[in-house]
């Protein structure tokens, strides 16, 4: 039987308060915290677009609570249906950069326009997807409520809470074919021991998988994952590279999405 050492320490971040709304000051602190991330070459020749993808990790205040917007992929999608993910997808010929692709996909999937997203930075290095045919580039942004026109205040620093997003409005604007549900994962949930499951990414890198069943509207276990649960339990393997199943088949942030979330929390020093 194979064992591993799980991440041991988690708590508050020096860049923001996990129970208070994000502010201009905290966004600036997060930007500075992400500056040490491995630099990604954002400009891409169009002819090399195949085999490249990008995702956006969208931070947001919702009802005065800071956290991250996530989606459950539509059940009719051919790959990873019913799984939790960030908005994003394949870079196509219309995109001029990896970031362009992430913003376009976010608009197509969640109906959130680029004009409402303030890019805070990126995390790296990018990972290859499980099939081995796609390099996925992760970016971090903050979703401003409504038409915030934030460009002219990016240099300001203050401690006023930034307006909260209307999650119900976002849910009404999602792509019905690509997105099964949208939910908000509070930062405080990322440090709740009851939600954390020690796991391995690609079989050898420990991280936390996050239980989110109760945060998803009408959330139900993914039938495909439930079907594979006995096989996973019989193997007694903590490696969820192939089967991202939680306890009793419940929804989790796992796999590549979970790994990128873990890297972000490490970068923001919530996980140590």
UniProtKB/TrEMBL annotation:
Cofactor(s) needed, names only, are:
Mn(2+); Mg(2+)
The protein's matches in Pfam families, at most eight in alphabetical order, are given as: NUDIX
Recorded hits in Gene3D superfamilies, A to Z, give: Nucleoside Triphosphate Pyrophosphohydrolase
Which UniProt keywords are given for this protein, alphabetically ordered?
Hydrolase, Magnesium, Manganese, Metal-binding
Q: Note the superkingdom of the native organism.
A: Eukaryota
- Family annotation (SUPFAM superfamilies): Nudix
Q: Where is the signal peptide?
A: none
Which segments constitute the Nudix hydrolase domain?
50-211
Protein name in UniProt: NUDIX hydrolase domain-like protein
- CDD domains associated with the record: NUDIX_CoAse_Nudt7 (cd03426)
């Amino acid at each position: 039987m194979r064992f591993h050492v799980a991440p041991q320490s988690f708590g508050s971040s020096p860049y923001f308060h996990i129970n208070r709304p994000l502010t201009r000051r905290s966004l600036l602190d997060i930007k500075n915290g992400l500056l040490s991330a491995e630099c990604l070459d954002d400009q891409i020749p169009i002819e090399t677009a195949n085999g490249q993808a990008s995702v956006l990790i969208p931070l947001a205040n919702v009802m005065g609570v800071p956290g991250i917007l996530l989606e459950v992929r539509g059940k009719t999608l051919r790959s990873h249906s019913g799984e939790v993910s960030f908005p994003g997808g394949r870079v196509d010929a219309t995109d001029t950069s990896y970031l362009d692709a992430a913003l376009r996909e976010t608009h197509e999937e969640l109906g959130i326009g680029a004009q409402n997203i303030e890019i805070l930075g990126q995390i790296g290095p990018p990972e290859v997807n499980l099939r081995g045919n796609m390099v996925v580039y992760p970016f971090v942004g903050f979703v401003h409520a409504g038409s915030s026109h934030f460009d002219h205040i990016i240099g300001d620093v203050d401690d006023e809470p930034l307006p909260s997003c209307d999650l119900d409005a976002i849910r009404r604007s999602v792509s019905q074919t690509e997105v099964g549900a949208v939910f908000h994962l509070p930062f405080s949930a990322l440090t709740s021991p009851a939600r954390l499951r020690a796991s391995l990414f690609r079989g050898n890198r420990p991280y936390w998988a996050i239980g989110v069943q109760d945060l998803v509207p009408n959330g139900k276990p993914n039938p495909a994952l439930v079907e594979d649960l006995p096989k996973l339990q019989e193997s007694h393997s903590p490696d969820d590279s192939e089967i991202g199943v939680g306890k009793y088949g419940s929804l989790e942030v796992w796999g590549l999405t979970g790994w990128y979330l873990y890297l972000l929390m490490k970068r923001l020093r919530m996980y140590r």
